[in-house]
């Protein structure tokens, strides 16, 4: 069986071919969404480049609430419909799953993924769920939960980006006010995303009464990591502190004894500071009487940009049984 795996984000679309449940790593490609009118044009270009006229199945992971017939992306004005995908690919079956649901399925094959441990020496004390969460164009999380009775694992999807952002102290309440303007509240995604990082930076510049130097979130993260601009660096610290706090909250909700995995382009942009600076881990552990308990959860950074495609391959493998 030849299948097409698709990971559609707000900024980029990644595709790969899957044969008999295994992602063909040499077949994967990434495309900038701005270069295409719609997803169908992306899929047609990929198949044409691979010399494939049709596939048997398609699994699409997308940044939206998925239905059987398709979905409209949360952070891009694209609607993807099952019948149009089938027409473009020639597939007899098209499945839609949430992008973080796909990341959750990839946790079942975590040994195939490129990761970086942020808590060396901290081993899992007992088997349990794996939590994957991350900041990119948006923010979300899911949990991979092994069966206690020998059956297939479950993946619990969520919409964590729309939870209310947990803030503490007078300074952070000032940030809450800035992120809430015109929105009524500050959600997790308003801070923990590319757009959120840039808004944190703008707030930091206003607090310091300095004009902004950076013009994009990419510039903010680059200058922060290089320690080339103090406002970018401080915005990075705020971002990592909030990421650690939210990550810790979700760890208490899911009890991921088999590990916490950070994903997303913005998370990866801070790979160096996440492993060398204590800002993230201190916020992750800062849970009062549960601080020692938080040491039970190893934390890793997902470096593999094809993780969701691996999750689609796992979905295709499990659904074929």
Question: Which key terms come to mind for this protein?
Answer:
globular; 6-stranded mixed beta sheet; 40% helix; 321 residues; alpha/beta; 21% strand
Describe the structure.
- This protein is an alpha/beta fold and 321 residues long.
- Helix content is 40%, strand content 21%.
- Strands 1, 2, 3, 4, 5 and 8 form a six-stranded mixed beta sheet that branches.
- The chain is globular and about 55 Å long.
- The mean pLDDT is 93.
Classify the secondary structure makeup into a structural class: alpha/beta
Q: For the record, give the distance between the C-alpha atoms at the N and C termini, rounded to a whole number.
A: 13 Å
Total helices: the number is 13
Q: Count the beta strands.
A: 14
Average of pLDDT: 93
Q: In percent terms, what proportion of residues is strand?
A: 15-25%
Low-confidence parts, pLDDT < 50 over ≥5 residues? none
Helix content: 25-40%
Q: How big is the Rg?
A: 20 Å
Oligomer status: single chain
What spatial form do the alpha-carbon principal axes imply? Answer: globular
Note the main sheet: 6 strands, mixed
Order of helices and strands: EEEEHEEEHEHEEEEHHHHHEHHHHEH
């Amino acid at each position: 069986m030849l299948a097409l795996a698709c990971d559609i984000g707000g900024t980029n679309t990644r595709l790969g071919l899957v044969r008999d449940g295994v992602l063909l790593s040499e077949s994967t490609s990434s495309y900038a969404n701005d270069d295409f009118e719609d997803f169908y044009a992306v899929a047609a270009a990929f198949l044409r480049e691979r010399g494939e006229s049709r596939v048997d199945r398609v699994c699409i992971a997308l940044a939206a609430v998925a239905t059987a017939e398709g979905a409209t992306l949360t952070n891009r004005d694209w609607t993807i419909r099952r019948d149009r995908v089938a027409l473009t690919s020639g597939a007899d079956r098209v499945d839609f799953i949430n992008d973080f649901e796909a990341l959750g399925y990839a946790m079942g094959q975590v040994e195939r993924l490129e990761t970086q441990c942020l808590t060396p020496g901290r081993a899992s004390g007992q088997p349990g769920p794996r939590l994957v969460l991350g900041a990119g164009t948006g923010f979300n999380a899911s949990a991979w939960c092994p069966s206690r009775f020998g059956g297939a694992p479950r993946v619990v999807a969520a919409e964590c980006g729309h939870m209310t952002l947990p803030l503490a102290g007078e300074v952070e309440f000032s940030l809450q006010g800035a992120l809430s303007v015109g929105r009524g509240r500050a959600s997790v995604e308003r801070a923990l995303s590319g757009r959120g990082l840039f808004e944190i930076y703008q707030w930091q510049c206003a607090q310091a009464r300095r004009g902004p130097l950076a013009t994009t979130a990419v510039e903010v993260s680059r200058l922060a990591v290089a320690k080339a601009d103090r406002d970018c660096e401080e915005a990075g610290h705020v971002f990592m502190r909030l990421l650690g706090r939210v990550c810790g909250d979700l760890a208490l909700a899911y009890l991921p004894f088999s590990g916490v995995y950070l994903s997303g382009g913005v998370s990866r942009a801070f790979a160096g500071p996440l492993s060398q600076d204590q800002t993230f881990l201190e916020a992750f552990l800062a849970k009062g009487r549960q601080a020692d308990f938080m040491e039970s959860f190893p934390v890793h950074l997902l470096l593999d940009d094809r993780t969701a495609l691996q999750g689609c391959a796992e979905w295709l493998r499990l659904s074929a049984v």
